[in-house]
Specification:
With about 140 residues, this protein is an alpha+beta fold. The protein has one domain (about 5-135). About 45% of the residues lie in helices and about 10% in strands. Helix 1 (about 15-30) links the parallel strand 1 and strand 2 (about 35-40). It is globular, with a radius of gyration of 14 Å. It comes from Thalassobacterium maritimum.
Length: about 140
């Protein structure tokens, strides 16, 4: 069995949209499947290559495998949608549907949002997790 911490969603810790997204996922992930870590943090240094850590416009999801292999690294729209699917909540249904859209289209939409996030959302929004959620926020 893989360490459950292999299900880590890495995000830009200085991005207001990213932090709001983490708050959204924390509130809905009642099965406590996902862990979260900023790309700028020490957990990212342990799990991600230097090249991936410079990709601040991309969400990165380490998705555990069931066959004992190392976690699979997913980027951009695949990362977001697979994290929603893995939470096993009602959000997995729209995520399954969205995965029917070609990856190039999904990632183009994702990239447009990433390129405009600083204009659309304030930076440096503080995460305010409850004590139970705090254990799922990695440094």
């Amino acid at each position: 069995m893989n360490d459950p911490r292999d299900a880590i969603l890495f995000y830009d810790g200085e991005c207001g949209l990213c932090q709001r997204s983490v708050q959204f996922l924390l509130r809905r992930d009642r099965g406590e499947v996902l862990y979260f870590a900023p790309i700028q943090g020490v957990t990212a240094q342990q799990y991600l290559s230097a090249h991936l850590r410079t990709a601040l416009s991309s969400v990165i999801y380490l998705r555990p495998t069931t066959d004992g292999q190392p976690a699979k690294t997913l980027l951009r729209s695949d990362a977001v949608l697979c994290a929603l699917i893995d939470m096993h909540t009602a959000w997995r249904y729209p995520a399954y549907l969205a995965r029917c859209i070609p990856l190039t289209w999904r990632d183009a939409i994702y990239q447009w949002i990433a390129n405009n996030r600083d204009r659309l959302w304030r930076r440096q929004t503080c995460l305010r997790p409850n004590p139970k959620q705090s254990k799922r926020l990695l440094p």
